[in-house]
Design a protein that fits this description.
heterodimer; A: mainly beta; 7-stranded mixed beta sheet; 4-stranded antiparallel beta sheet; globular; B: mainly beta; 6-stranded mixed beta sheet; 11 strands; 0% helix
Chain lengths: 111, 111
């Protein structure tokens, strides 16, 4: 069974530029999460989807971050415009039983 | 505010010994508890989940939960150099609720 797939693995952009990350969850997993992980810290939840509905986006900085999960499968997380402090690893996870399985992450560097 | 506390380490353990990792949490409504292992530059990997008080064993790993004390621990028996990683404790209120992670404990197994 394929795991959670994320792309791109690495992205380097200049500040104020836009960036987008894509996630394909494990087949059959209705719940999808986006987490942010800074160096030396644990992952922090940005948004949780149940199928195509965002059921918890309280930690998503909505002035610059947006996410969508059309058709309840793949998801995209966007940042526009990016700031220096957005440099981090963006992790996507999916679940069907409450146990979360993570993708390899997308490492963003903002210059 | 939900908090999960871990000693960041590094925790250094001789090969073959028992490694003991500890975690406390603040939310008394927490129902599900997880341990993730994260190698440097990689994403978190689920190694144990525990939902009721007591011990749960899986191979060389034992998770211990004490809800009254709001305490979770992970024991690794016969520690191997390949166990060297950061171990993340995570909790939630059950179901598909997003996980709250600690900052992780950096474990080093000395050959």
């Amino acid at each position: 069974e394929a795991g959670v797939v994320q792309s791109p693995r690495y992205k380097i952009i200049e500040k104020k530029q836009p960036v987008a990350f894509w996630c394909n969850p494990i087949s059959g997993h209705n719940t999808l999460y986006w987490y942010l992980q800074n160096l030396g810290q644990g992952p922090e939840l940005l948004i949780r989807y149940e199928n195509e509905e965002a059921v918890d986006d309280s930690q998503l900085p909505k002035d610059r971050f947006s996410a969508e999960r059309l058709k309840g499968v793949d998801s995209t997380l966007k940042i526009q415009p990016a700031e220096l402090g957005d440099s981090a690893v963006y992790l996507c996870a999916s679940s069907s039983t409450g146990e979360l399985f993570f993708g390899e992450g997308s490492r963003l560097t903002v210059l | 505010q939900k908090e999960v506390e871990q000693n960041s380490g590094p925790l250094s353990v001789p090969e073959g010994a028992i490694a003991s990792l500890n975690c406390t949490y603040s939310d008394r409504g927490s129902q599900s508890f997880f341990w993730y292992r994260q190698y440097s530059g990689k994403s978190p990997e689920l190694i144990m989940s525990i939902y009721s008080n007591g011990d749960k064993e899986d191979g060389r790993f034992t998770a211990q939960l004490n809800k009254a004390s709001q305490y979770v621990s992970l024991l690794i028996r016969d520690s191997q150099p390949s166990d060297s990683a950061t171990y993340l404790c995570a909790v939630n209120r059950g179901g598909a609720d997003g996980l709250t992670f600690g900052k992780g404990t950096h474990l080093i197994i000395q050959p």
